[in-house]
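Q: Give me the 3D complex with nicotinamide-adenine-dinucleotide.
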Amino acid sequence: MARCLVTGGAGFIGSHLTELLLSKGHTVVVLDNLSTGRADNLENVQHNSRLEIRQGSITDPVALSEAVHGVEQIYHLAAAVGVKLVADDPVRTIETNIYPTEQLLRLAVQGSVKKFFLASTSEVYGKHPGEAWVEDDDLHLGPTSRPRWAYGCSKAIDEFLALAYFRKYGLGVTVGRFFNVVGPRQVGNYGMVVPRFVEAALRGGPVIVYDDGSQVRCFAHANEVIRCVAKLMETDGAEGRVFNIGSDQPVSILQLAQRVVALTGSAANIEFLPYNKAYSDDFEDVQRRVPNVDRLYNTIGMKPTMTLDEILHDIILWKRESLLT
Ligand SMILES: NC(=O)c1ccc[n+]([C@@H]2O[C@H](COP(=O)([O-])OP(=O)(O)OC[C@H]3O[C@@H](n4cnc5c(N)ncnc54)[C@H](O)[C@@H]3O)[C@@H](O)[C@H]2O)c1
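A: Here is the predicted complex, encoded as structure tokens.
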């Protein structure tokens, strides 16, 4: 059993991962500044004697170095997340997503850390024109004058840093590029589409689709994603490599809105809003985002397989309960 640090452990994915690691018998230190995460996300496990919750920022070198002390595995999930937050505050994105990752890698090689998981994102592929994206494909980031690309670019730099620490120091780094992870505890405040649609439908609408809704995405349940992360960290062959982690079942955003309305039994209307009203005049979106997950499946023998309806059922159930409390 290992002592693990989960940065961003009070967040949506981080809290599910923390629960899983505790259930496997590990000891978990969470470092989170509760900026987009919530203490409530850890309420199921808050009394577990193997969980230590530290409220602090990864941008604080002292807090970071104290959190790493005695740790054997790091799961680095803390980041400025969400297209809207990132477009609104690009300086925070760069400060949160780049310098602390470098610091954490340095602390890892100086200390007793054996394994390091870096949570990266499909955003690193940028506007990739391909049907299904493969880990070693070229990146197609947009211009630096458009703040939206700062997020993907910052995570790409994190990947370069992490892989460099693997090559130079033999740190057991694994990079996971998440593709649209959804599930209970995800909130819609930062432009996340599924919680935004579900909440709107449950409140009677309208469900607002940006542009014409023809954008294509794949949605994976957080429970399946964190199991893939844990399995990757148990697999020596995953070290020094990058993995797409997500569903490979594409759906258009308009179809998603229609399924949400149907499954909630809502009478909500679906309405369309141009990008320049939702974000800004120079906003660019990615039309199609579908991962090839062969490398993940060939390495760990599993991949996310839940259907969209199964995933939406779970989220709607959770959202209904949380709207009542
Ligand atoms: N949800 C997705 O679809 C998705 C897709 C691609 C990548 N990711 C990556 O997965 C990770 C987790 O994302 P999430 O969806 O759970 O979002 P989230 O916002 O719920 O989680 C991020 C967590 O990091 C914390 N945090 C932010 N800045 C911090 C700081 N300076 N110090 C300490 N903690 C800080 C937040 O409070 C939050 O708890 C992120 O690295 C994100 O880039 C998520």
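A quick observation: Residues 8, 10-14, 31-37, 57-59, 77-79, 81, 96, 119, 121, 178, 180-181 surround nicotinamide-adenine-dinucleotide (CB under 6 Å).
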